[in-house]
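tool=predict chain=A
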Amino acid sequence: MRLSYLWSRAFLSTRFVLWLLFICNFLGTVYGYIWYDSQLKYTWLNHPHWQIIFVPDSPTASLFFTLSLLFLLFPKQLGKLNMLRTLIEGLAVVTSVKYGVWAVSMIFAGAFQGGGLVWQDWMLVASHLAMAVEALLFVRLYKFGTTMLICAGVWTLLNDTVDYTYGVYPWLPEKLWDNVNEVMIFTFILTLVSIFIGWLALKFRKR
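tool=predict ok
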């Protein structure tokens, strides 16, 4: 099997691959929400309840990608939900790229300042990089356009604003507790970069 075939539209659209990725991402999403259990409980008890939706960033990004696979698995059954489909696809791309890269960056930034790396960190690095890669690979199968990409970007910027205005950003490694302002700036810039990458992916998806 040629290596290029593994990244092709034909291979990615096979039901085996779609189901395999759906199951893996579904389980990863569930695990991600469990990972955020302590912060979700803390936010619920100490913040206005509406803020809780902005807490689990990475699992929600994974959820968007998982839902996007349903539209590829059941195109006829879900064909009437085209607007919802394209919105979810746009969100899947922007948030998966953004939070995939963000999580890896925070792990290594904490390690660079003297924090240790344990096996869970390497697991998170691998899974979050996979989030970013798979979302970009599937752009060629998605139907969303610039409008939904902008909507996804606006949502992600809103998420950033809530995170750093009300202090509900993902809990950082201890070594980064003194660098919240720098993390905030990096986060907003990364969102803009993710939107741009999504736009580039749209431009090249038919090639």
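Residues 3-204 form one domain. The mean pLDDT is 92.
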